[in-house]
Amino acid sequence: MIRPSVIRRILTTDLPVLLIVLLAMGPFAWMVLTSLTPSAQIAQSGVSLSPAGWGVDNYVRLMRQTSFAVNMGHSLIVAVGTVILGLTVSVTAAYAISRFRFAGRKAIMLQFLLVNMFPVVLLILPLFILMRRLGLLDTHLSLILANATVAIPFAVWMLTSYVGAIPKSLDEAAMIDGCSRLMALRRVVLPLAMPGIISTGIYIFITAWNEYLYALTLGGRNVRTVTVAIQTLIGEYQIEWGLLAAGAVVGAMPATLLFLIVQRRLIGGLTQGAVKG
Amino acid sequence: MSTLAPAMPLKSVYPTPWRSRALPYAFLLPAILVTLLVVFLPMAEAIITSLYDLILWKPNASRFVGFGNYVKLFADPVFWTALGNTALWIGLTVPLQMGLGLIAALLLNREFPWRGLARALIIIPWALSSVVIALMWRWIYDPNTGVLNDILVHLSIIKSGIPWLADPATALYAVIATLVWQGFPFFAVMILAGLQGIPRSQYEAASIDGASAWRQFRHITLPGIAPVLATAGLLRVIWVANSMDVIFVMTGGGPGYATHTLPLYAFIRARQNLDFGYGTAIAVTFTILLGSIVALYILRTMREVER
């Protein structure tokens, strides 16, 4: 027997939630279905909804006929590079902001917040001129530096809140026991902040992996990341939706999986500031 | 001199050595150096470039024109079209994202068995790259084989396929719909966190007093999440105003100038004609316009940090 209250709950909660989940998932699910339907069939009878019409034809072509695997490699280098650069410079900065009271502290925090809001379009044009002058166009370094414009301010803010949550008395105790500031940072604060550092790093990775405009403008023939490569999968005369969908699914996979793994902790960190207000 | 010494606070008898006073700055130095290099230097460069008539493939013809680019801008009809589109773009996208996010958050805040799963699935659009989103929706909107037209024709809402992105009357709205889809999970998650911060006892007290569900929503829920709505809303206005990658991939600003927003116009101008002087002038103007909203957001956030 199903109690009336359960039926009520299903009608007023489960069904509407299901609709919203379908809305959120639908377009991507459609993309997955498209990628599983062989291209010839898409042109003839449309996307196949039943597993009978599915195949990995598009994925095989993606790996054999295009340089997609190489593009994944470029994206990986750029994303990992951005994570390393972003985290190394931000950890000490976050430590300084949360542990010391010094002249200009507020101005520096404000500066990082402000930088985070800068329009991409204001930076992208001069960065292009700058990188061209330095001969850095079409290198991994130029993309890493460009991604750092977003990664550093974000990491400084996130890490400041994580480090701030670690009691000051712990590093003071370590310093009384003979540690220097740097040693206290390395032996006490870093291990305790590690979960926060890891999720910040993963978020930087996702953003850098998904970044498109800088990769398009500053990259080129040598360094072509996944996001730029997906666009080139559009055929010359007609759009090859099957191949394109396969590229989109493979390209989106690393970031999506990482996001699902860290979402709970990350959202905790991101929403903390907003809720306190 | 000797009269001054006793007046000084006791601490200064053992002055902090300069080394420990310099320590925080040393810790901050790498981050500040990199931001100077990749943000403030280019920004200065942008302001200077905007005062020049600079076409990138003929650098020798570059000349100083003062505010010439800005004067040209105000007489440029495309600038005004793009400005209007930007206003419409922000004015529709952010409230719709917020509305849909609010509904999703209110639903997810209820008790049901698969709540954790639903919460994880709903944020999927957030993790996808703009290019993937833009191409995905181009495929959905495709006039001949797109699934949207298929469904609408099947339900006999329309008689024949609509070229959503090729028709100047629908293109901007089609892109806005995509952005709403991309951004509502962010609001859902933020608002959900806000909802969970409202004490249960308030609702209990209200229902004892006989307050209807609507009145509880108006007088407890809305005031409870108002700060979150304000912060997330401001953040989103800035984000939506800046984002041009989805439009760029979906329509490239077309058909005609129907989906040009200000940042996109600046980008296209510089990219296609390599007209960097004029392009950066548009970008700088846009940044100044956005500045007031940024200032509001920063004031709010710094106040929170103070506390």
From TrEMBL, chain A:
GO terms for cellular component: plasma membrane. It is a multi-pass membrane protein. It holds the Pfam family BPD_transp_1. Its main location: membrane. The keyword Transmembrane helix applies. One of its GO terms (biological process) is transmembrane transport. The keyword Transmembrane applies. Belongs to the binding-protein-dependent transport system permease family. This is Carbohydrate ABC transporter permease. It comes from Microvirga brassicacearum.
From TrEMBL, chain B:
It is a multi-pass membrane protein. It is found in: Cell membrane. InterPro entries: MetI-like, MetI-like_sf. One of its GO terms (biological process) is transmembrane transport. Pfam families: BPD_transp_1 (PF00528). It comes from the Bacteria. The chain crosses the membrane at residues 87-108, 120-140, 171-195, 276-299. Keywords: Cell membrane, Membrane, Transmembrane, Transmembrane helix, Transport. Residues 83-299 form the ABC transmembrane type-1 domain. One of its GO terms (cellular component) is plasma membrane. PANTHER family: BLR7065 PROTEIN (PTHR43005), SPERMIDINE_PUTRESCINE TRANSPORT SYSTEM PERMEASE PROTEIN (PTHR43005:SF1). Belongs to the binding-protein-dependent transport system permease family. This is Sugar ABC transporter permease.
